[in-house]
Amino acid sequence: MAHPTQLGFQDAASPVMEELLHFHDHALMIVFLISTLVLYIIIAMVSTKLTNKYILDSQEIEIVWTILPAVILVLIALPSLRILYLMDEINDPHLTIKAMGHQWYWSYEYTDYEDLGFDSYMVPTQDLTPGQFRLLETDHRMVVPMESPIRILVSAEDVLHSWAVPSLGVKMDAVPGRLNQTAFIASRPGVFYGQCSEICGTNHSFMPIVVEAVPLGHFENWSTLMLEDA
Q: Which family, according to UniProt (predicted)?
């Protein structure tokens, strides 16, 4: 999860998020090089009284500064489009979970099971136990098996919400009357935090998302216990 003074993204916990991090570094390096070149030209023009006659009127330079930006845009667009299509790929999900946004909590329904669903509320500050994070912990976590394709169906009951978990590279709007879908694969076990990312009213800041990725055997034990309690 994020920590104070952090400048970059959270550590990737899914293949798609790893690709997004690589693309971010790729684009940032291009921006850095362009900024360095422009800064150098500005300093050179301001600090010297000499004028290069080949810069004042040069067909070759005009050709270069027309073609070069187009090449740079292609170098950014191609990997961007690749990741865009990767994020839309949903191949044979092992588990489907329906996430419904409410004012101001999330409810989860495991549609592959007959009666497995629960509401997920934020744990109030006064009820937190040592090691839990304020405004991020919930009373019921969304438990998923690691290294398995998970499909998330996202909708809302009242107003616009957004189901987002940064370390998994997932962000999907929850729209009343509309069912959106996204998918992810948790590449390692862990607890991953997110929050509603669409302003949805007074308590918008108080509807966190907690995804816990566990080995398949642990997930089966958890689902059995949840079904017995239901």
A: Belongs to the cytochrome c oxidase subunit 2 family.
